[in-house]
Every structure is written in structure tokens, then in C-alpha cells.
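As a warm-up, study this chain.
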Amino acid sequence: EGQLPFGTRPGEQAIVELIVGMYRKPRGRPRLTYGKIAKKLNATVLKPRRAAQWTSHLVRNVILRQKGKA
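Now compare it with the structure written out below.
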């Protein structure tokens, strides 16, 4: 079976929506990189499920998983 993807447990979907919202390209400005999103998340109390902190790789996985659902 394995582990369920991040965003399937209660409370995680709000974090997924925050990540996707930060990734969307703002009008007239460049899109935030995965690393910059990870840095912003690490400055909050929001933590990933298993890792000590957010990394660009974790952020990328969350975003790609959401793109696959669309």
C-alpha cells in the first residue's frame, strides 16, 4: 500500500493550496522557485509530514501531484 501522498490527511489540503497559490505566476512578476517557496514555508510553523523542514524537492512533488489531478 505505501504512504498516502501529502495533502490527504486532515489539515494538509490547506497547506497544499498555499503551496500551489505561491507557485502561481503573479501578473507582471516572475514565479517563485520551489526553493523560495520552501524557504517561506520553513519560516512558518507549517511542517512537512516526515521531514524536518521543507525542501525544493518536497515542494516540487506537491505541485506536480496537483498538476496531475487537473
